[in-house]
Amino acid sequence: MKIAHLDLGERPVMLAPMEDVTDPSFRLICREMGARLVYTEFVSAEALVRNISSTTRKLHIDDRERPVAIQIYGREPEAMVEAAKIVEQAGPDLLDINFGCPVKKVASKGAGAGMLRDIPKMLAITEAVVKAVSIPVTVKTRLGWDCESKIIGDLGPRLQDCGIKALTVHGRTRSQMYTGSADWEPIGRLKADPRMEIPIIGNGDITTPEQAVAAFDTYGVDGIMIGRGAIGSPWIFREVTAAIAGNDPQPLSVKEKFDIIRRQVRESIERIDEYRGILHIRRHLAASPLFKGLPNFRETRIAMLRAETEAELLALFDDIARRYFADLI
């Protein structure tokens, strides 16, 4: 699969952009595990134009994580164009436009998935951004605003006409948020549409190697994107890419998984500070399958998610390893 000049190989698997998740450390780990392309957290165009430090920090790219895309969102064409120019100076391989974020604080203001209620403005922004930068521009969106307006079949060709080089579709409407099941049928129909010449990337509910292989085989997409399925388990890319290649997935050992989690804690602290770095990593700990289903684990889980120092958290990891995985480490 190629996005403009960028060759991602056959059946690539990518890390989806996720707010407060896809920081540089996590992106790099996912690349090492087999993700062919990674995306930053989404970046507010207006905050970027105003030079808000917490936003501009999101533009930092480690060359080891390439290829990498920076994703922006906003509702005003002028701000989106200016932000796109700023992003281009940061040197990403791709610029992605977020027309899919469903959260209220974004969509209710007309940005993200909110653009699905104003298609002319969405297309105007897309065309303006494409013309403003020299790097390839892509779009990520949803099926439509609600179940009565699944418009992706008509929208896809129109976005392509704006000059984008790839389109990612999350198989839910905005009204669904993240509930229910992702519907890949409209994604498959879009891919089969003879008008579509750019790569179509599917996203939604890919949490196992079997689901990843089925997404390619059933819907014919050019690539797939994994989001929530990677939180707390970046090794999913290793397992999925092996299955797609027709090999038996070789799961990491428990020790290797603990090593990755410890690395995430350490690098999160180094990037921010101890207190905020640990707060940031709690979402990964809460979601990690490494801690799912352990007997009599409730109090330990609470302690793990309340730990405030690196020493306290690492000591808990050591205790969990001894109590539950002594014969595997």
3D structure, described in words:
- The chain folds into two domains: 6-244, TIM Barrel (Alpha-Beta Barrel); 254-325.
- The longest helix is centred in the C-terminal third of the chain and has 18 residues, at 254-271.
- Strands 3-4-6-7-8-9-10-11 form an eight-stranded parallel barrel, surrounded by seven helices.
- It contains 14 helices and eleven strands.
- It is an alpha/beta fold.
Radius of gyration: 20 Å
- The N- and C-terminal alpha carbons lie at a distance of 39 Å
Oligomeric state of this protein: single chain
Please name the CATH topology of the largest domain. Answer: TIM Barrel
Structural domain tally:
2
Portion in helices: 40-55%
Instruction: State mean pLDDT (0 to 100 scale).
Output: 94
- In total, the number of strands is 11
Residue ranges: pLDDT <50 for 5 or more in a row? none
- Please indicate the percent range of residues in DSSP E strands (runs of 2 or more): 5-15%
H/I helix tally: 14
Helix and strand element order: EEEHEEHHEHEHHEHEHEHEHHHHH
Label the overall shape. globular
CATH homolog superfamily of the largest domain:
Aldolase class I
**CATH-scheme architecture of the largest domain:** Alpha-Beta Barrel
User: Which CATH class of the largest domain?
Assistant: Alpha Beta
Largest sheet: 8 strands, parallel, barrel
Structural class: alpha/beta
List the strand order in the largest sheet. 3-4-6-7-8-9-10-11
